[in-house]
Amino acid sequence: MSGPLEGKVALVAGATRGAGRGIAVELGAAGATVYVTGRSTREGRSEYDRPETIEDTADLVTEAGGRGIAVPTDHLDPARVRALVDRIAREQDRLDVLVNDVWGGEKLFEWDTPVWEHDLDNGLRLLRLAVETHAVTSHHALPLLLRRPGGLVVEMTDGTAEYNRDTYRVNLFYDLAKTSVLRMAFALAHEIGPRGATAVALTPGWMRSELMLDQFGVREDNWRDALDRVPHFAISETPRFVGRAVAALAADPGVARFNGQSLSSGGLAREFGFTDLDGSRPDAWRYLVEVQDAGKPADTTGYR
């Protein structure tokens, strides 16, 4: 059976693990051909030194019903990104969805550390990975995406525009990175909207990525065992939840109504009616404001 994205071509930049992998798999489940990029391959790992690879992601895309194509790419290298886009143009002659999900900063930021105490090299590296990579990728990929009307660009970040406007996020470097990506989507909307395409910023909620599960010493099948230590983790979601958000946007013929907006996985679940893998609809950002940040006991009633 063909899916709603049959015949569509997507590029998920930064698809080795986490949100990028979840997005790539759900685009594949909807029938898309998905190019997945990253720096961790079966031949060598990035400085993350983790087992996930882009080849594994591509296999998961294909198993889900799409066609996964892994292309090792450092998105700080403009020549490599240009070669990636040239390959997509040569092989597909189109690009319908661009997801800028490159991040790579988990090992670089220091929690609640002021800028004058934070390691400067790590902070600047974080900004390059989180912001410069997105700009490089958009620069090279957008001419191909704009060849046909209806293209979609998704800038992945952490936090909605409203939440990040009012909330200090970790430290100056992290705060600046995540806010910058929100603004990138806003600016891209002004540049590509009149040319027939749509740009949005999208955030998952508290995501049960491979790194997060490892940090709490649990697996996806027993993640609730961490709730005794981290009660608010009860609002968490799988990476596939935000993947379903992107797939829903990509399949929506009226997606232009979201141009320039800051969106969340939980908010789009209400809009489109999709659920997480367990059938729930976690609304993490509303929960964070109304329960966690308000100092209330963990209780997801009415939030998932």
UniProtKB/TrEMBL annotation:
Q: Which NCBIfam families match?
A: PRK08303.1
Residues of the signal peptide: none
Which InterPro entries would you find in this protein's record?
NAD(P)-bd_dom_sf, SDR_fam
Q: Which domain of life is it from?
A: Bacteria
Q: Specify the protein name.
A: Short-chain dehydrogenase
